[in-house]
Amino acid sequence: MLGWALTFLVIALIAAVLGFGGIAGTAIEIAKIIFVVAIILFVVSAVVGLLRGRSGRVP
């Protein structure tokens, strides 16, 4: 998911350099949203992993 955020960031940077302000603005907003969602999912996953602990035994 962070790969998608970086992709949109690169698209935004290229569009800004070429003078496409509307496309650059839209791409950077999408990148921000995807980045925030990725961070939230990471935190939720980390908390769930800590709460569950290691339930299985390794022989």
From TrEMBL:
Compartment(s) of residence: Cell membrane
Entry keyword DNA-binding: no
InterPro entries: DUF1328
Protein topology in the membrane: Single-pass membrane protein
Transmembrane segments: 29-51
Keywords per UniProt: Cell membrane, Membrane, Transmembrane, Transmembrane helix
Family, per entry: Belongs to the UPF0391 family.
Database matches in NCBIfam families: PRK13682.1-1, PRK13682.1-3, PRK13682.1-4
Name of the protein in question: UPF0391 membrane protein FO470_05200
Organism expressing this protein natively: Ancylobacter moscoviensis
